[in-house]
């Protein structure tokens, strides 16, 4: 049995590529890296990789991580600029005994030394998004500080190959208009991702500052390790963290998780409306589902219609007007 599950519709082309590799007895590490690179390279997915949305200084700072569920090796980069495919840099770092998480200039020096591709990740489209946002903020309240807003959808994946190896990986440009140097949950082990081939793998998307308050990816893997089905583990962990944050702080940011166990069973949970995910297994072709959260914290999902899929791409590829 093999399988892949990922956050958001934007991952479906990536997991399709990964599935081709897994079908031919490919390695879960190679498959997940290739799948996330597919998302990173597509300029119309504005929250990941090339064309990712910039920080308040109009710089694209990227975060990414990779975890090997067999060895528990982890590699991560944060606030890295001007390099394509940060997930590949993260995977390379996972082979280091020490210094396996690097940030900003240190990550860039390592990537350059290792021969990774330099690339200006700020596209004309992303620049237009930035200028449009500046105009909106100016119109709303002259002189007020620019603040982050929606557009922080992380691509996170969990993967299982035929040998039973599991991996998890993430990639994101983080919050649009974030402070320079801001890092969310995506490259933080246990929060944005976690993989253990004996228990399962999970990955998160949402507001990093709140996701980090619960180490939620690790919690889901822990629950699966105790015998809980991935769906129940996701719903339990998301519901508990959402409730805890609302009780203690009065509110909770976006929290959405995907997971898979060593049997190829999978699950999802969210505290928002509009979450989508993509999944493929030996028995299921690459499919996008839309999630509905019920009042009791349970989540249901249905296959995205052809119309929804068509509108999704039309919206993302529509001409930008500053």
From TrEMBL:
Residues folding into a coiled coil are none
A Gene Ontology cellular-component term: cytoplasm
Database matches in InterPro entries: Ntn_hydrolases_N (IPR029055), Peptidase_T2 (IPR000246)
User: Active-site residues?
Assistant: 154
Q: Name one GO biological process term.
A: proteolysis
Pfam families (alphabetical): Asparaginase_2
**Keywords associated with the record:** Autocatalytic cleavage, Hydrolase, Protease
* GO function terms (MF aspect): N4-(beta-N-acetylglucosaminyl)-L-asparaginase activity; peptidase activity
Q: Where does substrate bind?
A: 182-185, 205-208
EC number(s) given by UniProt: 3.5.1.26
Q: Where is this site: Cleavage?
A: 153-154
The protein's name is: N(4)-(Beta-N-acetylglucosaminyl)-L-asparaginase
Please report the organism this UniProt entry assigns to the protein: Lacrimispora saccharolytica (strain ATCC 35040 / DSM 2544 / NRCC 2533 / WM1)
């Amino acid at each position: 049995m093999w399988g892949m599950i990922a956050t958001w519709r934007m991952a479906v082309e990536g997991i399709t590529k990964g599935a081709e590799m897994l079908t031919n007895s490919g390695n879960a590490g190679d498959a997940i890296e290739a799948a996330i690179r597919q998302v990173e390279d597509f300029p119309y997915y504005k929250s990941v990789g090339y064309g990712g949305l910039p920080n308040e200084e109009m710089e694209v700072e990227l975060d990414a991580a990779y975890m090997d569920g067999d060895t528990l090796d982890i590699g991560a980069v944060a606030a890295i600029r001007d390099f394509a495919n940060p997930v590949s840099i993260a995977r390379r770092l996972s082979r280091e005994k020490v210094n396996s998480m690097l940030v900003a200039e240190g990550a860039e020096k390592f990537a350059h030394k290792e021969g990774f591709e330099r690339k200006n990740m700020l596209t004309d489209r992303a620049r237009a998004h930035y200028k449009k946002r500046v105009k909106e903020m100016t119109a709303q309240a002259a002189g007020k500080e620019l603040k982050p807003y929606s557009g922080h959808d992380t691509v996170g994946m969990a993967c299982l190959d035929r040998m039973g190896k599991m991996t998890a990986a993430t990639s994101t440009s983080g919050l649009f208009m974030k402070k320079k140097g801001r890092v969310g949950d995506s490259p933080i082990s246990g929060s944005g991702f976690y993989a253990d081939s004996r228990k399962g793998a999970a990955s998160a998307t949402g507001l990093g500052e709140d996701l980090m308050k619960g180490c939620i990816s690790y919690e889901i893997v822990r629950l699966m390790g105790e015998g809980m089905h991935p769906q129940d583990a996701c719903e339990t962990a998301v519901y508990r963290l959402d409730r805890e944050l609302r009780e203690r702080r009065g509110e909770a940011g976006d929290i959405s998780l995907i997971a898979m166990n060593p049997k190829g069973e999978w699950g999802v949970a969210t505290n928002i409306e509009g979450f989508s995910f993509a999944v493929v297994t030996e028995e299921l072709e690459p499919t996008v589902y839309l999630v509905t959260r019920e009042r009791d914290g349970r989540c249901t999902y249905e296959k995205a219609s052809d119309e929804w899929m068509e509108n999704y791409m039309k919206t993302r590829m529509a001409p930008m007007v500053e």
